[in-house]
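Long-time lurker, first post. I've been practising inverse folding by hand and with some scripts of my own, and I keep getting stuck on stretches where the structure tokens seem ambiguous. Below is the full token string for one chain I'm working on. Before anyone asks, I'm not after the true native sequence, just a reasonable design that respects the backbone. If someone could post their per-position residues I'd love to compare against what I wrote down in my notebook.
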């Protein structure tokens, strides 16, 4: 089957500890549980797109270790095309060290491993997949030159190009913006990209205005429990989030991005796609872990606000 959503990005094994609260610098806290869970922003977004109805392909790289085999198998189990998931000899797979606290917040440290080997040449070799796609999705856990190449190639092929700028530590190169149809940062990422602190709908509007002025086609700032703000040249729209009891917010943003991409790929309008993504993300925070928390299509379609 032709992949309608192609994700170029990371695969990580998540080593997840639960603790009452996140440790301060220099502090040791006692944990209450541990799990090894398939994750990585790219792979999570691919799983979300696949579970939510899109034929999906992943372009990435794992290490030649046991985690690499498990990460690949996790995607294959979802029916995701992994022909462009390479294995880097002599390297470990991407890792994420995650602590989740009792307030369901997390802190994450990632180590790139095989993700650092996803080169522009590797994406070029996957050009047949990019050509098939309706929607191409990138994040920032693979090398920046690879993201730049993918955005430009997606634009040249006339595809819908989504960038989830996560994680981000500096403003994006100015020339990237022209290739991005949908830029989807959270509040922290929007702050890093614009220098504007995003802590209200008003400040989100200001940040989105700046991102549009920099050249992004459309902007969706995800606001956690506050939902999301959509902005295009014509104005803004706030989408409130469904209210749920959060257990673990890991991969909520990834679930939103993958769900949004899947909905666009099946021809839904962007507003419908945002609403769909928000329900999917809300359901994901009611379950623990990255990929295990991502809902399927029937869960989202059957969701009714309690
Ligand atoms: O967005 C959540 C993801 O961030 C985790 O699965 C972890 O692997 C990191 O990439």
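-- Answer (accepted) --
I ran through it position by position. Result:
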């Amino acid at each position: 089957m032709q992949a309608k959503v192609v994700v170029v990005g990371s695969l990580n094994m998540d080593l997840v500890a639960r603790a009452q609260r996140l440790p301060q610098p220099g502090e040791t806290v006692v944990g209450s549980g541990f799990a090894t869970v398939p994750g990585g922003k790219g792979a999570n977004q691919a799983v979300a797109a696949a579970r939510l109805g899109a034929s999906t392909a992943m372009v990435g790289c794992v290490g030649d270790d046991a985690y690499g085999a498990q990460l690949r198998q996790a995607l294959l189990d979802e029916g995701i095309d992994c022909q462009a998931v390479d294995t880097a000899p002599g390297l470990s797979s991407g890792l994420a060290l995650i602590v989740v606290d009792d307030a369901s917040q997390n802190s994450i440290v990632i180590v790139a491993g095989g993700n650092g080997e996803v080169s522009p040449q590797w994406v070029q070799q996957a050009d047949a997949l990019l050509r098939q796609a309706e929607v191409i999705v990138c994040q920032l856990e693979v090398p920046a030159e690879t993201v730049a190449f993918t955005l430009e190639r997606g634009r040249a092929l006339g595809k819908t190009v989504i960038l989830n700028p996560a994680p981000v530590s500096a403003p994006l190169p100015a020339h990237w913006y022209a290739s991005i149809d949908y830029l989807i940062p959270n509040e922290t990422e929007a702050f890093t990209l614009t220098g504007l602190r995003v802590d209200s709908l008003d400040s989100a509007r200001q940040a989105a205005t700046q991102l549009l002025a920099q050249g992004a086609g459309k902007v969706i700032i995800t606001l956690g429990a506050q939902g999301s703000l959509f902005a295009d040249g014509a104005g803004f729209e706030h989408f409130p989030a469904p209210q749920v009891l959060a257990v673990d917010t890991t991969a909520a943003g990834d679930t939103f991005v993958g769900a949004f991409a899947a909905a666009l790929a099946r021809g839904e309008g962007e507003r419908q796609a945002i609403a769909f993504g928000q329900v999917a993300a809300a359901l994901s925070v009611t379950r623990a872990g990255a990929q295990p928390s991502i809902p399927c299509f029937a869960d989202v379609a059957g969701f009714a606000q309690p």
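A couple of notes from the structure itself: The longest helix spans residues 270-284. Residues 10, 12, 14, 39-41, 44, 96, 108, 110, 141, 250-251, 253-254, 290 surround alpha-D-ribofuranose (CB under 6 Å). Happy to go over any region you disagree with.
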